[in-house]
Amino acid sequence: MPFGINFGGGGGGIDKITGEPQDDSGTPVKRELNTDDFDTFGGSVEPGKETEIATLKVDSDVKMRWGYGSANNPENQGFLYVDLQSGTPNPVEGQIAFYVESATRRTSHFVTSYDTERLDASKTDKTNMVPLPLQKAYRASEDSYLVIYLNAASSNTDQSVDESQSDVIIPATEYDLS
Q1: Ramachandran assignment for 107, one of left (phi > 0), alpha (psi -120 to 50 degrees), beta (any other)
Q2: Residues 102, 107, 111: CA angle, nearest 5 degrees
Q3: Which of 75, 98, 136, 165 makes an SS bond possible with 85, Cβ 3.0 to 4.6 Å?
């Protein structure tokens, strides 16, 4: 099955890349991704340059989107917690960006971005957390990727993100098609 990225707002319609019918059939499952859920997480970063720090390849019989819930209903939407640390550990700050990329990695679609300084205030207090409701613009299908990039701030003393020192909770929606 070829990859597909949904360019529409919700289900239905035709995928503008594959030409296949789109739908969000399947059971939506709320996910909270942490560093262990990604195929790769961490690595060297460079100030002023978007550098890939995390990838998640979408399995067969699954489709995924960044975020979950609705911005219209704050009680059910997802909230971000991102605490990126170097191996020292020192905070690694900058602009974090969420993308959906095709299986070949030649097609990349920006979804949203945030300043990391806003994302590590609390892991549990939603009044101090930044929401990430379901992002309907792009969807990753089988063999496509959910990818996170970091444009590191020049003030970082250590220019690397260490998986074992970092902590993230990133909401996503998985559609089980099996």
Answers
A1: beta
A2: 85
A3: 165
Which residue range is the domain that position 70 belongs to? 34-169
Among candidate residues 101, 81, 93, 84, the one with its CA nearest the CA of residue 41 = 84
- CATH number, domain containing residue 41: 2.60.120.1180
6 within a domain of the structure (yes/no): no
What pTM does this model have?
0.85
Q: Please identify which residue in the block is written with the tokens 């679609």.
A: 109
Tens digit of pLDDT for each residue in 8-66? 444 454 444 334 445 556 788 999 999 999 999 999 998 989 999 999 999 999 999 99
- Average pLDDT score over the chain: 86
Q: Say if CB 108 and CB 3 are below 8 A apart.
A: no
- The beta strands (E) that lie in the chain are given as 27-33, 40-41, 43-44, 50-57, 62-66, 79-83, 94-101, 108-115, 130-131, 145-152, 160-161, 167-176
Q: What is the pLDDT of residue 23?
A: 55
Ramachandran quadrant class, 9 (left: phi over 0; alpha: psi -120 to 50; beta: rest): alpha
